[in-house]
Amino acid sequence: MHTRVHEFSWPDRVVVGAIGLPGARTFYLQVRAGTQIVSIALEKQQSALLAENIDEILDQLITVKGNPFSVPTGTPVELVDNDPLEAVQEQFRAGAMSLGWDPSTAQIVIEAHPLADDEFDPDPDPDPDDESFDEDGAIESEMLLVRMPVGTARAFAKRTREIVAAGRPMCPLCGFPMDADGHICTLPEV
């Protein structure tokens, strides 16, 4: 089995966006370099944790004594990206993800692997034109590897937090999300 790596070392754009109405949104991590675009589906919680952990890494770098990297404390205004997602063609749904720091390039590194499918039953007659199979008929796994500079990472985290927060409003009484078509408030007993 081979792993197809979608690698972006200096992407032109890396964002999280959502498609759909609040309460039924699908979140995507989308990366573009030139004409190459990869979109992977994320859970809302994965998106929120990704933004939170990126900010934590950047905040820790600021406190390192003798840090040679210029890490912005806020989002550089020239890197703000409020544009919608480009044409989305889902590559895979993210399962395991990792986040790191590469000091040799001063970049945040995101690695995403597809959601494991425990119920996968390989097709005994693979379609040779299906790109998910290699030349020997073995199933290829995929992986997204994104490296982004610190300013881009700050802008990415800010936008992601805003996208996540733009969901359904919370009920001020019970604290549960309110749907557009109504809300039955279940107040805790006193």
Q: Indicate the CATH topology.
A: Secreted effector protein pipB2 fold
Q: Overall pLDDT, averaged?
A: 86
Secondary-structure-derived class: alpha/beta
Largest sheet: 7 strands, mixed
Question: Your description of this structure?
Answer:
It is a single chain. This protein is α/β, with parallel strands linked by helices. It has a single domain, classed as Secreted effector protein pipB2 fold (2-Layer Sandwich). It is built from two helices and seven strands, in the order ββββαβββα. It has a seven-stranded mixed beta sheet. β5 (90-102) and β6 (107-114) form a beta hairpin. The radius of gyration is 20 Å and the shape is globular. Mean pLDDT is 86; it is low at 119-124.
